[in-house]
Amino acid sequence: MEWVGLLRHGQSTGNVAREEAESDGREVIDIAERDADVPLTELGAQQAEAAGDWLVRHPVDVVVASPYVRSAETARIALAAAARQGARVPEQVTIDERLRDRELGVLDLLTTKGVRERWPDELRRKQRHGKFYYRPPGGESWADVVLRLRSLLRELHADAAGQRVLLVAHEMTVFALRYLLEGVPEPELLRIAARTEVSNGSFTAWQHGADGRYRLTAEQETGHLHAADTPPTEDDDAAASLA
């Protein structure tokens, strides 16, 4: 692939519910839907609309999105906004389950306090194995997410050779791509993740060089959001920060 970009989905109702639960000191996040069905907020839809301006200046050939509603809707809104401005956009968005958010198993819907109070043994196990390899019961580790993303990239390297590919997915996907495309080793990756804010509606991108390596060319860009008077939000996904 000539170029790979990652658009994080716009703010979701799940992001808001999680931030509220953490701020209130609750153990459980109040979300009625399953994670795959959590929709965008009104602000999240505006962020997706503003992402269309970025795509006007950075046209893409292929778009692949997570099947989760918040990501698929972000892709649809952003491409429609770019097309209205006369940009060249792909005829369709490919939905691929390998781009889904990390599954948390028994820790799903729990806040940091909830995990500490209800699963103290899991916190100790996480400390032993480390954040990259720790897999909560019934869930996935960071390494599991990397494995399925590696499979997708291998197919795209073959099917979209020489093309500009945009992935529309989740906060966690940014770090998985840095590991796979740049070869960032595990210890450094976790240090980067600890200090990096991946705003809703932000773009991260990598350019393929003549030496065969990918180099980071856009790092969580939000200029398009500010230009549209749409505030970026830095609501964490539990999959990237909780476990």
TrEMBL record:
One of its GO terms (biological process) is glycolytic process. GO terms for molecular function: phosphoglycerate mutase activity. It comes from the Bacteria. Keywords: Glycolysis, Isomerase. Substrate binds at residue 70. Its EC number is 5.4.2.11. Belongs to the phosphoglycerate mutase family. BPG-dependent PGAM subfamily. This is phosphoglycerate mutase (2,3-diphosphoglycerate-dependent). The lineage of its organism: Bacteria, Bacillati, Actinomycetota, Actinomycetes, Pseudonocardiales.
